[in-house]
Amino acid sequence: MSGGLWLRLLDGLLVTLQLTGYGAVLGLLFAFAAGLARLSRHRVVRGIAFAYTEGFRGLPALVVLFWLVFALPGLGFQLNPLFAGVLALSLNIGAYGAEVVRGAVLSVPAGQIEAATALNFTRWQRMRRVVLPQAVVAMVPPFGNLLIELLKATALVSLVYLQDLTFQGQIVRAATGNTAMTFFGLLVGYGVIALILTILMRLVERRAAASLGRAVRPGLLSGRTS
Amino acid sequence: MTRADQITFDGVSKKFGENVVLDDLSFGVAAGERVTLIGPSGSGKTTILRMLMTLTEPDSGTITVDGDNLFQEMRNGTLVPAREQHLRSVRRKITMVFQQYNLFPNMRVLRNVTEAPVHVLGLSQDEAEARARELLEMVGLADKIDAHPAHLSGGQQQRVAIARALAIRPEVLLLDEVTSALDPELAAEVLDVLRDVAKSTSVTMLCVTHAMKFARDISDRVLMFNEGRIIESAPPAELFDAPQHERTQRFLRSLREES
């Protein structure tokens, strides 16, 4: 394989990492906004968040992507292709993340909120100082899962001609004719990134648990928090 | 009930489903008074504390603290259900210590005690810390300032919770079965701290407890509850040594057999 083809793969890897990184940040934003909105006291706010989460959980990310890339320009909105990819992926992952946020907030014991009330915290202070710091700890493991899901979903963008790892893999396959080797290479590529993400999330999980005075035994294969 | 009462319950009723928890209850507590609430479980004692802490609303009747109606406020000349702002203003004087401690696990011991003084009362970090250190010293935990609550025993956690409650300088302290989750030795540590508090402050105390010796030591008055009503009210010496009501006699006998 020529150096040019290797460079192509490297470029593709970079695009995949960008999609995953930006998608995660924007998805986290959607997740928190929608997850907290679903717990709002205001019906309208809850309704909008409900429509978003249920809507985007039900839509294939690919259909959303096709919409943003092929249908929106017809309505006069031309999005930057990378941004369109990030937006489609994060809208989808954010809808799942919203459920994680909502569930984690609800999992904080009522006694914590009562104690915060007894100290006369405002509603916002109860959320910000007591509930969220504990809820976030519970969010980390499921967010780790979603991050891997996001990474895998980025491969969809190759179908709208964004030149990610999968797209470049196809080019390499066409150029070399070596289908098995190319797809094996992609497999290893995604696998290695996923492993690195898993290790990173594991570190975050340990730090989060430590913030509540719990210890997680080190190592990837370790069990539950003690 | 007298005009001088700091806390008044007037015709307060509460049902949970079909279960009548408080039945047209009226009583008052004077400022600085120490009142112990006893009675079988389910007789409404904890509900009274939770109502004063604005955690549970009555179905009917009024509750006042220093003349302020807890759950209703005047707006445009009419009484309307209280909004959060009103609740926060009446909550300012009251705080509560819970059976399950409810320390904030995301904060170390010192911050558990300084958080409300800094963010609710607006004290400076230094002032709040100085006060927290004093209080933690008083409850015998000066050496645990940097510990996570998860690393403390139940008795230690409850003593931190008491320090945390006192840090906001309450006028009314509600104690909801604060030793029920503790084994006797740890419970004794907590009760000793509370005896200190009773002796060294003038805070009004409402206390739900099964610790009769403690109730006798600190209370001015003991209220015996049964089925959502007060059936007997007397100074501890009288109520414990010469209970008038048959239900009270039976209840006290069962407690003695238990211990």
Automatic annotation (TrEMBL), chain A:
Pfam families attached to this UniProt entry: BPD_transp_1
Main location: membrane
Regions that span the bilayer: 12-37, 58-76, 135-162, 182-204
Record GO biological process: amino acid transport
Subcellular location per the Swiss-Prot or TrEMBL entry: Cell membrane
Lipid bilayer topology: Multi-pass membrane protein
UniProt cross-references to InterPro entries, sorted A to Z: AA_ABC_transptr_permease_3TM, ArtM/GltK/GlnP/TcyL/YhdX-like, Ectoine_EhuC, MetI-like, MetI-like_sf
Keyword vocabulary terms for this entry: Amino-acid transport, Cell membrane, Membrane, Transmembrane, Transmembrane helix, Transport
MF-aspect GO terms: transmembrane transporter activity
Protein's name in the database: Polar amino acid transport system permease protein
TrEMBL record, chain B:
Subcellular location: Cell membrane
Pfam families listed in its UniProt record: ABC_tran
Cellular component GO terms held in the UniProt record: plasma membrane
The organism's place on the tree of life at top rank: Bacteria
Keywords of the record: Amino-acid transport, ATP-binding, Cell membrane, Membrane, Nucleotide-binding, Transport
Topological type in the membrane: Peripheral membrane protein
Molecular function in Gene Ontology: ABC-type amino acid transporter activity; ATP binding; ATP hydrolysis activity
All copies of domain ABC transporter, residue ranges: 7-252
InterPro entries in UniProt: AAA+_ATPase, ABC_ATPase_HisP-typ, ABC_transporter-like_ATP-bd, ABC_transporter-like_CS, Ectoine_EhuA, MetN_ABC_transporter-like, P-loop_NTPase
Family statement drawn from the similarity comment of this UniProt entry: Belongs to the ABC transporter superfamily.
UniProt-recorded name of the protein: Polar amino acid transport system ATP-binding protein
Native source organism of the sequence: Lentzea fradiae
